[in-house]
């Protein structure tokens, strides 16, 4: 019984790790296709976060940026997944 649990646990970790590596590789390839310097991309991320944080309180542990390509329609997308803790009311801004 313990062995089955351990095997399931390792398999789950392997699948999650594999998914994360695949996702990172796609992101690296997309960055290469964009030909954007990593410093510029990081600056874009910071500027986006600065603007968004004027209106909402962000959870810094749950912020993720990714770059995805769609070869069918020849587009590259910058995707920001930003976790919001609470809304800052406009009268305070």
TrEMBL record:
Belongs to the MinE family. Prevents the cell division inhibition by proteins MinC and MinD at internal division sites while permitting inhibition at polar sites. The gene is minE. It is found in: Plastid, Chloroplast. This is Putative cell division topological specificity factor. It comes from Galdieria partita. InterPro entries: MinE, MinE_sf. Pfam families: MinE. GO terms for biological process: cell division. Signal peptide: none annotated. Its main location: plastid. Keywords: Cell cycle, Cell division, Chloroplast, Plastid. GO terms for cellular component: chloroplast.
């Amino acid at each position: 019984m313990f062995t089955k649990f351990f095997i399931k646990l390792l398999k789950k970790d392997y699948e999650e790790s594999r998914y994360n590596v695949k996702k990172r590789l796609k992101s690296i390839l997309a960055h290469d296709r964009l030909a954007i310097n990593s410093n510029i991309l990081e600056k874009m991320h910071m500027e986006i976060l600065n603007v968004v944080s004027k209106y909402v309180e962000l959870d810094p542990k749950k912020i993720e940026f990714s770059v995805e390509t769609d070869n069918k329609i020849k587009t590259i997308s910058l995707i920001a997944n930003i976790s919001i803790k609470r809304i800052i009311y406009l009268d305070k801004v």
